[in-house]
Design goal:
This protein is mainly α and 291 residues long. The protein is built from eleven helices and two strands; from the N terminus they run ααααββααααααα. The chain has a single domain (5-281), classed as ABC transporter involved in vitamin B12 uptake, BtuC, CATH 1.10.3470.
Length: 291
């Protein structure tokens, strides 16, 4: 089978765009699990919520994409803070299964509300006018919006990594999960820090949802299939590993794109095959810490 260079590059770009979504979503999951020790199954529903709020703002209030890129993550982050204060705070010392079941229930509730209003058919959302065109690179046509998705995702992902791994705030966050009493002795409000961390993690999901709105048709169920792949990405990268989530998300998106070129039948399963292989060789994940 002979593949033309433009076709190969187009699939690589598509894989990189998907990988950007995987990276930013798995980053949010890794932040929440690594710092709160909660498996947040509601992440896909909150990703959808960011996209649907963006669609609603445009259609009902004529608010443009750029405003919602900042507003939607804040709104969903505040919603996440309410969830953490009312529900999650009671299960931190319990088995992971309780957090998984609770957030699964939240997922069904959130998706059910929007499905009853909008159904399951997709809602069209156009890319902003400034990014609606494409650039001719000579060897391929590069859609400007897809290039923007990759750049924005990389900036947010690596800024988050820098804050958590290289700043005093990040040190407090990591220490607060290991020994909260010691950190509180230094005058740090650990419960508030945990609440804000969860809000930030779900805000990342909403940010990805706003980015995805012009690429993936907006639907109350748009997070269902994506979140399964994202969980696989987190497992492969290592549960709680920030850099692992970013690099693995981007890498698996590219691998998935290449698989669609050379062996399309395996494109929907290649991520899970890699997950099985990694778990057999390194159960903690590629970047996870062995206990």
């Amino acid at each position: 089978m002979q593949i033309s260079l433009p076709a190969l590059l187009s699939q690589l770009l598509l894989g990189l765009v998907n990988g950007s979504f995987y990276a930013i979503l798995s980053l949010g999951l890794a932040v929440i699990f690594g710092l709160l020790n909660v498996i947040n199954f509601a992440h896909g529903a909150l990703f959808m919520l960011g996209a649907v709020l963006t669609w609603m703002a445009m259609n009902y209030f004529d608010v443009n994409y750029w405003v919602m890129l900042a507003v939607a993550p804040v709104l969903v982050g505040l919603f996440g803070i309410v969830i953490e204060r009312l529900l999650l705070r009671w299960i931190y010392k319990l088995d992971h299964l309780y957090g998984l079941l609770l957030t699964l229930g939240l997922t069904l509730l959130i998706e059910g509300v929007f499905r009853s209003i909008y159904g399951v058919s997709g809602l069209a959302y156009d890319a902003p006018e400034a990014l609606s065109s494409a650039t001719d690179l000579g060897f391929m046509i590069l859609p400007n919006y897809r290039a923007w998705v990759v750049v924005a995702s990389l900036v947010v992902c690596f800024a988050t990594w820098f804050v958590i791994e290289k700043t005093r705030l990040g040190a407090y966050l990591r220490a607060g999960t290991e020994n909260p009493r010691l950190v509180e002795a230094f005058g740090v409000n650990v419960p508030l820090m945990i609440t804000l961390t969860y809000g930030f993690g779900v805000a990342l999901a909403a940010f990805a949802g706003v980015l995805a709105a012009p690429v993936i048709q907006v639907s109350p169920l748009m997070g269902q299939n994506l979140i399964i792949v994202v969980f696989a990405v987190v497992v492969i990268g290592g549960m709680g590993s920030i850099m692992g989530a970013i690099l693995t998300g981007l890498g698996l998106g590219v691998i998935e794109g290449l698989t669609k070129v050379f062996y399309p039948e395996a494109s929907s399963t290649v991520v899970f095959v890699i997950m099985v292989i990694v778990l057999l060789i390194r159960p903690a994940g590629l970047f996870g810490k062995e206990k």
